[in-house]
Every structure is written in structure tokens, then in C-alpha cells.
Amino acid sequence: LSPGLLVVAGSFAAFRLLNRGLERLVPPPPSARRNRWKWRNIWTSLAHSALPDTHNLCPRRFYLHPELSKDLVGTHPPGAHSLVAVSVGYFLEDFVDMLCNQKLHQSWELLFHHSVVIVCFGIAVLLHQYVGFALVALLVEINSIFLHLRQILLMANLVHTTCYRLNSVINLGTYVVFRIATLAWMTRWLFLNRQNVPPATYAVGTVGMAIMTPMNIILFYRLLRSDFFK
Predict the structure, then answer these.
(1) Which site from 49, 54, 59, 225 is most exposed, i.e. has the minimal number of CB atoms within 10 Å?
(2) What transmembrane ranges does the database entry give (predicted)?
């Protein structure tokens, strides 16, 4: 087994153990006790989004190494490959968790999303290429912090609070910057560098962007309608 796959397996096991122990660390409020697995699932997702390496490695490395934006295929900073492998382990764990605890018609969108991410990130881990591209994609996790906090506040029945309102504003702001703008930049880079990317990998990347972009725009509309248009 390659070291990357070992990191993926270790990450899967670590997030699985965290998921099992989170109910003791963060007991669910009365409003969330009917859906305990969901409470654990969201806190596990928040733990992944809040990983210090994600925020220290992604924006800082692109600032210190501007050449990364020109070569996202063969160039990546130290630690980036392991970070992507850790994320693959998390998405696998979240996929299994939803598959075991939620009905398919309720979770198919997220399962589909996770499948695309696992395939794209898995290619980067196995080939040790396109790690920089995956690193850009991980910028969306900065927004995911506020997206998961929103779900936690909803489950805790804290919708009519200043904390929820403030989080809603920050959530939408970071959504535009770290999700929509990031995906647009990735799509542009992929189009401009199509001659430097093998056809099979280019096809996977193009299909991934074609799926992710409308999904994120639809989610943005839902958030806007739910938190500001009601």
C-alpha cells in the first residue's frame, strides 16, 4: 500500500472514532435528541472543516508560492498530499455514515457530491499529481465551517438569535468567495490548461466542475431564501 492510501485509511478510522465519541464530548440538546446521528455527523464535518492545516496550508501557501497558481499539476507544497489524503478519508467516512443512517432520497445530493470529490481527490492521492488543484478545492472548507455551524444552530433551535443571524451573513459572504468564486477559478484554470492535462483526467475534472457548480449555486439560492427572504 502506498503511504497516501495508509493516510486515507487512518483518516477514515480517526473520523469514525471521533463520530462515535462526539455525543459524549458535545451532548445533543433536547431538540436534537431525535436525530442523534445527524448531530454527530455535523460535528464530525465541522471538525474536518476546522482542521488547522486546511486554513494554514491552503491560503498561506498560495500567497508564499505564487507559482502554484500556474502549475497545479506537478507542484505542491510539503504536507499538501497528506492533507488531501486526510480529506479523502473524511469524505469516505461521511459517505458511509449517511449511507447507513439516512434514506437515499434524503441524502442522494450529498452522496453524489462526495462521490465526485472522492474520485477527484483520489486521483491526486494515487498519482501524486493535481494535488495543487485539490488544494484549491479545499478552500471551500473555510465556508463549510459556517455552513455546519448553521446546521448546529438550527438543530439546537437557536434560529431566532443574534448568533444565528451573524453566522448567516458570514456564511453567505464566505460562500461567494470560497465556493462560487473558487469553483469559477478552477473551471477557468482547467479550460486554459486543457492541453497540459491528459484527456481522461481532463474529462473527470470537467465533469466534476459541471456537477459542483450548479449544485453550489442551487444551495446558495436555498440559503438566501431560507435565511433572508422568509
Answers:
(1) 225
(2) 133-149, 169-191, 203-224
